[in-house]
Design brief:
The chain has about 300 residues and is α/β, with parallel strands linked by helices. The protein has 2 domains: about 140 residues, NAD(P)-binding Rossmann-like Domain (Rossmann fold), CATH 3.40.50; about 160 residues, Lactate dehydrogenase/glycoside hydrolase, family 4, C-terminal (L-2-Hydroxyisocaproate Dehydrogenase, Chain A, domain 2). Helices cover about 40% and strands about 20% of the residues. The protein is built from 10 helices and 11 strands. It has a 9-stranded mixed beta sheet, sandwiched between helices. The chain has a two-stranded antiparallel ribbon with strand order 7-8. Strand 3, helix 3 and strand 4 form a beta-alpha-beta unit. Helix 6 runs antiparallel to helix 7.
Length: about 300
């Protein structure tokens, strides 16, 4: 029923992941025929971590399945079309009714509301585990790493900027002070960099002249998060990612922070850590907007019959 948690007819559904099993990741992609779902499915099909890839959508999954199945990698691909086939698609993978023990990764906009939606539906089915539901905010980190690397002449693959808060506008809070390696910027450059990270999605929309939004970079970022989960399911230790989850770190009931991932669920919330006055101000300003988005998601579920 995960598709039902997002927006009607998949209109704003980008992709929803679910993973389960050990040693060989089994991944289901919901919304797999879309502009983000297709490149995500390609990246997952190309990964040696994935042994089974099931794809679902309300239109065109047979074609996407056929296309992916011709790629010479180990992942077995099977497609599913329409609500009546959704239960079969999710067997061994996820969702409140079919496989509630799986780890659920949501990249469907707006994450600040869709994670509360997902949580409330799981609660209705009495299978809610806050340590297994992740709002994927990795795209903000990918962008921040890239932008910082450009400014400092660094290898972006070696830059890591933690991003806390949420996944929209001013709720995106880059902790440049905690960047690895350590970097420093004059205040005016820091403010400009922060603004660019927060509005990077608009930058892509403008560059595409209104013909679309970020799809390839979002697919890449989403796949990166899934690969991290697959790594810990295969026994890798010390895997850390940022994600929007149920949290007690602030007065918001959901908040993104650095997380230590475990084999079957979130292992430890690594908290916000030490922040600068500039970053503290961003947190304070983000909280009202986050609260409103969270409430919007919770109210959406309450309105469902």
């Amino acid at each position: 029923m995960l598709c039902a948690l997002t927006w009607p007819a998949g209109a704003a559904l980008h992709s929803t992941f679910s993973t389960s099993a050990q040693n060989n990741a089994k991944v289901a992609v919901l919304g797999a025929s879309g502009d983000i779902g297709q490149p995500i499915s390609l990246l997952l099909k190309n990964s040696p971590l994935v042994s089974r890839l099931t794809i679902y959508d309300i239109v065109h999954p047979p074609g996407v399945t056929a296309d992916l199945s011709h790629i010479v990698t180990r992942a077995n691909v099977k497609g599913y079309l329409g609500p009546e086939q959704l239960p079969d698609c999710l067997k061994g993978s996820a969702c409140a009714q079919h496989c509630p023990e799986a780890m659920i990764c949501i990249i469907a906009n707006l994450v600040n509301s869709t994670i509360p939606i997902t949580a409330e539906v799981f609660k209705k089915h009495a299978v809610y585990n806050p340590n297994k539901i992740f709002g994927v905010t990795t795209l903000d980190i990918v962008r921040a790493n890239t932008f910082v690397a450009e400014l400092k002449g660094l290898d972006p693959a070696r830059v890591n900027v933690p991003i806390i808060g949420g996944h929209a506008g001013k709720t995106i809070i880059p902790l440049i002070s905690q960047c690895t390696p350590k970097v420093d910027f004059p205040q005016d450059q820091l403010a400009a960099l922060t603004g660019r990270i927060q509005e990077a999605g608009t930058e892509v929309v403008k560059a595409k002249a209104g013909a679309g939004s970020a799809t390839l970079s979002k697919a890449y970022a989403g796949a990166c998060f899934v690969f991290s989960l697959a790594d810990v399911m295969n026994g890798k230790e010390g895997v850390v990612e940022c994600s929007f989850i149920q949290s007690k770190e602030t007065e918001c009931t959901y908040f993104s922070t650095l997380l230590l991932l475990g084999e079957k669920s979130l292992k430890k919330n690594l908290s916000i850590g030490k922040v600068t006055p500039f970053e503290e101000k961003m947190i304070t300003e983000a909280i009202p907007e986050l609260k409103a988005s969270i409430k919007k998601g919770e109210d959406f579920v309450k309105s469902m019959k």
